[in-house]
Amino acid sequence: MTVSRNEQILQKIKGGLIVSCQALKTEPLYSSYIMSRMAFAAKEGGAAGIRANTPEDIREIKKAVDLPIIALYKVDYPDSPIYITPTEKEVEELIEVNSEIIALDATNRVRPGGMSLDEFFGKIRKKYPDQLFMADCATFEEGMHAQEIGFDIVGTTMSGYTEDTKGVSLPNHTMIKRLGDALNVPLIAEGGIWELQDLKLVVKEKVHAVVIGSAITRPREITARYVKAIS
Fold first, then answer.
1. Checking phi first, is residue 88 left (phi over 0); if not, alpha (psi -120 to 50) or beta?
2. In this predicted model, what pLDDT tens digit does every residue of 107-121 receive, in sequence order?
3. Which of 152, 172, 153, 151 minimizes the C-alpha distance to 161?
4. 169 - beta bridge partners?
5. CA distances, 175 to each of 37, 49, 156, 170, 205 (Å)
6. Rounded to two decimals, what is the model's pTM?
């Protein structure tokens, strides 16, 4: 029986740790080259995949590692709070760099141009029927809706980052457990996993993989956390 490319990608990350290697312009490690070395270090440590931002970073990372990449493209638009792969233009640019998985904001907020998620993703799915898409969600309901409209993977990425979920305790164990029990598509747990104990609790649920970013790849934030503990 032939296994499809998408099935192979999902199999590669199953049960594994995906390391988010991202740095914005305002951060000390902002550099595609540095992100490629971060990804290489993550691979050396046993990571099953990488989550990365911008086509430039993804190109460099692909030169350094052969792990599946969850690709996104953060761009701010004045008429929408959505910044994770917000329009068709960003999707096209991520397709061009052969992204294995493309992450989109799948919250219930209005997208640039006044477009709803259903309208936007309907167009994207029709245009790229064979591409794996991950829904970055903030609530249980958004995760279930993402599955309904055809996303291949659901993630808990946006919990705590929307008006509706501000102040929620992270990692959002309740959301992870509920989605793990209810979804038929793979669930990726992401957001606020800082301690080994957090990770151990999360992987007890029905998750396909786990993403960790700040606790591994953001030395400024890691340092500040320890400094705060001292003072």
1. alpha
2. 999 999 999 999 999
3. 172
4. none
5. 33, 23, 8, 10, 11
6. 0.96
How many percent of the chain have pLDDT more than 90?
Answer: 99
Region of 144 on the Ramachandran plot (φ > 0 left; ψ -120 to 50 alpha; else beta): alpha
Residue whose token pair is 């493209």 = 73
How many whole angstroms separate alpha carbon 158 and alpha carbon 213?
13
Q: With bands split at pLDDT 50, 70 and 90, how would you rate the model's confidence at 3?
A: confident
pLDDT 10s digits, 127-152: 999 999 999 999 999 999 999 999 99
DSSP 8-class letter at 108: S
Burial string for 32-46 (b: 16+ CB within 10 Å, else e) reads bebbbebbbbbbeee
- DSSP alpha helices (H): ranges in the chain? 5-13, 32-44, 55-64, 88-96, 117-127, 140-148, 173-182, 196-202, 214-217, 219-230
Residues 18 and 211: beta-carbon distance below 8 Å:
yes
Closest to 110 in 3D by CA, of 76, 141, 75, 86: 86
